[in-house]
Amino acid sequence: MHPAVQQQLLALNRQFYATVADEFDRTRQGLPEGMITLARLLRARLPSRARILDVGCGNGRFARALAQHSVSGVYLGLDADERLLALAVAQTTNLGGLACRFAQVDMAQSAWLDATDAPYDAVVSLAVLHHFPGYELRRRLLAEMTSLLAPDGVLALSTWQFLSVARFTERSVAWETIGLRATDVEPGDALLTWNQGARAVRYVHNLDRDEAARLAADCGLSIVETFRADGKEGNLNLFVVLSRG
Predict the structure, then answer these.
(1) Which residues contact 242 (CB under 8 A, 6 or more apart)?
(2) Where along the chain do its domains lie?
(3) Which of 21, 60, 163, 178 is deepest in the core (most CB within 10 A)?
(4) 17 Cβ partners below 8 Å, 6+ apart?
(5) How far apart are CA 183 and CA 169, in angstroms?
(6) How far apart are CA 127 and CA 58, in angstroms?
């Protein structure tokens, strides 16, 4: 993908979240089944006092899922959107044994690593990687997250499987609406509209299990477990748990 196209799509998504942050938060208050299942899986693998990094934490609701499963330790949530981070702070002030803090970073720049304090027992990145355009950028991000893992740590991802859901493909708009062509982007890329309280468009990539396996292999990771959950259909999100080796 040409760097100028990549930068245009990254800027589009930054503007998207700046526009819809409050509505996004309002529609992301509940804990979906996939998050609950992942929190339970991690609880079984984590030490009694765990160090957890949430890359692209949004309003911090995965911290609440961890606390609900009695995960104790320290949690760092990173996100690019200032408003979502403020909401995350407000909604995670009293999570028992899980001490939370947050920082604003731009994950498209490797300098985001400076905000971390590795190693981590678990690194999670939920509904995030599919918003980064270009396979090489996604591979670089996954490699950077891998570098932050403790030797026995786990890395967990979730990605939309929107191409299999008609109600999402019906929301797609032509690349020409933002001055691009289909030849400028990669297979599985799309522009999807948001119409809840505000109208906005974001870039998304359908990162399926095959691509997840390829990314994992490129980063020296092995797939420990996968499952699908969430959405009206019960399978909108693909969850992938990874470890080194």
Answers:
(1) 154, 155, 156, 157, 216, 221, 222, 223, 224
(2) 3-163+207-244
(3) 60
(4) 24, 80, 81, 83, 84
(5) 19
(6) 10
Nearest to 156 by CA among 120, 194, 118: 120
Pull the structure tokens for residue 227: 């499952």
Instruction: Identify the pLDDT of residue 28.
Output: 67
Q: Are the C-beta atoms of residues 32 and 233 closer than 8 Å to each other? A: no
92 versus 166: the higher-pLDDT residue is 92
Can you give the pLDDT at residue 30? 74
Average pLDDT over residues 164-177: 83
Q: 207: which residues sit within 8 A by CB, 6+ positions away? A: 129, 130, 138, 159, 160, 188, 238
Over the stretch 67-90, which tens digit does the pLDDT of each residue have? 999 999 999 999 998 988 999 999
The amino acid sitting at 213 is A
Give the pTM. Answer: 0.92
**Res 170: pLDDT:** 77
Rounded to 5°, angle at Cα 6 from 4 and 8: 70
Between CA 13 and CA 99 the distance in angstroms is: 29
Grouping H, G, I as helix, E, B as strand and the rest as coil, residue 133 is coil
Task: Give the mean pLDDT of 104-130.
Answer: 96
Beginning with the edge strand found earlier in the chain, give each strand of the sheet holding 98-104 in spatial order: 98-104, 73-79, 50-55, 120-126, 149-160, 237-244, 221-229
Q: How far apart are CA 209 and CA 235, in angstroms?
A: 13
Query: At residue 27, does pLDDT exceed 70?
Result: no
Q: What's the rounded Cα separation, in Å, for the pair 28 and 3?
A: 32
